[in-house]
Structure formats: C-alpha cells, structure tokens
C-alpha cells in the first residue's frame, strides 16, 4: 500500500513540526524519536524519550491496518528523503539520535533512521543471513 501524495505531505509536515521544536540555541539530550501508529484509527504520534507528544497526524490509509511492515516501509522512505533534503541538519541534538517505530506497548520494533556524523546505515537487509553464513563458516572451520 502506498500513501497518497496528500497524505505524504501531511506526514512530512508533522515530522517537520516535531523537528522545529529542536531548532534552538541550547542543545537537546534527546536520543530517540518514537513513532507510534494506532492501527485502529490510523493515527501516528511522535514522542520524545520522555514520552512527550511532539506531533500527531491522522493517516487515513492506515485505518484498520495492523501490518507494521507497511508503516516501516513508508516511514523509512519518507525519513530518508527528508534526511537527504537536509530537514534534520539544523536540529540542535547530540548525535547519534534515531527515529524508531514502536508498538502499542512502547517497545521498539525497528530503527527507521539513525542520524550520526560518522555512521551510515545502508539497508536494513545488509546483515540479513549473516548468522547462517557465519555458523556455516565456523562449522566448516572446526571440521578441518
């Protein structure tokens, strides 16, 4: 499912609203922004580390949607685009910090975007299958 252009713009405005709260003279100690989607009503809420609500937006396409993979893909894509456009460059936040998709119990599901000066996350699939390959390598090494 892909979000409409209008919905993507609303979502981007909510994230921009959240980010604008961290453009200030004093440095913030926020380490994560938590994005929680209510699958029943399609509401996305963005919280800081102290569970303070920073922004809220209604996503009509997500009403009744309970598939976290759908949220993950759309949010990762939008956040990456915003990051490339420099939307987070002027935030006065100590790096690294991240945008995290959380569930109803505020448990982290996945890091959507990590902002750091010297760390680059290329893809969530980068290490997929690494455990199996490493186990096979070690098994072969031990057999010799």
Can you walk me through this structure?
There is one protein chain. With 144 residues, this protein is an alpha+beta fold. The longest helix has 17 residues.
Distance between the termini: 50 Å
> Count of helical segments?
3
Which ranges are low-confidence, i.e. pLDDT below 50, for 5 or more consecutive residues? none
Q: How are the strands of the biggest sheet laid out side by side? A: 3-2-1-4-5
**CA-atom Rg in angstroms:** 18 Å
| Percent in strands | 15-25%
Overall shape: it is globular
Class derived from helix and strand content? alpha+beta
The largest sheet, given as strand count, sense and whether it forms a barrel, is: 5 strands, mixed
Mean pLDDT, all residues: 85
Query: What is the number of strand segments?
Result: 5
User: What is the succession of H and E elements?
Assistant: HEEEHEEH
Q: What is the helix fraction of residues, given as a range?
A: 25-40%
The total domain count is 1
Brief sketch in words of this structure:
The protein is an alpha+beta fold. The protein is built from 3 helices and 5 strands, in the order αβββαββα.
Features:
144 residues; alpha+beta; 3 helices; 5 strands; globular
